[in-house]
Amino acid sequence: MMVRPLGDRVLILPIPNPTETASGLVLAEPWTPEQSGEIVAIGPAVKELCTGHVAIFSWQIGQELFLDDHRYLMMRESDVLAVLEG
């Protein structure tokens, strides 16, 4: 199923928090919700973001959508705080 956001909305596939440290220690449970994700679709009024960017956003923002066994977040372009580069 394909979703086309309207207006200035973006569809984000959240990146799960790590379950173990760089040294291999297993973390019991992630204590913070996702705060970053890949932008997979953008609306026609979006000016500064592109699909494929990794966006940073507040954990309280976004409407959850469950499509094709995946969890997505829909939010406005202004809700994205930053984009990871490099």
Key phrases:
86 residues; mainly beta; 10 Kd Chaperonin, Protein Cpn10, Chain O; 6-stranded antiparallel β-sheet; globular
- Total domains, how many? 1
Write out the CATH superfamily name. GroES chaperonin
Q: Give the mean pLDDT.
A: 88
The radius of gyration over CA amounts to 14 Å
Structural features, described:
The chain has 86 residues and is mostly beta strands. It has one domain: GroES chaperonin (10 Kd Chaperonin, Protein Cpn10, Chain O), CATH 2.30.33.40. Helices cover 0% and strands 40% of the residues. The chain is built from no helices and 6 strands. It has a 6-stranded antiparallel sheet, with no helix packed on it. Strand 4 and strand 5 form a beta hairpin.
Task: Please give the structural blueprint.
Elements: E1 9-14, E2 36-42, E3 54-57, E4 63-67, E5 70-76, E6 80-84
Antiparallel strand pairs: 1-2, 1-5, 2-3, 3-6, 4-5
In short:
It contains no helices and 6 strands.
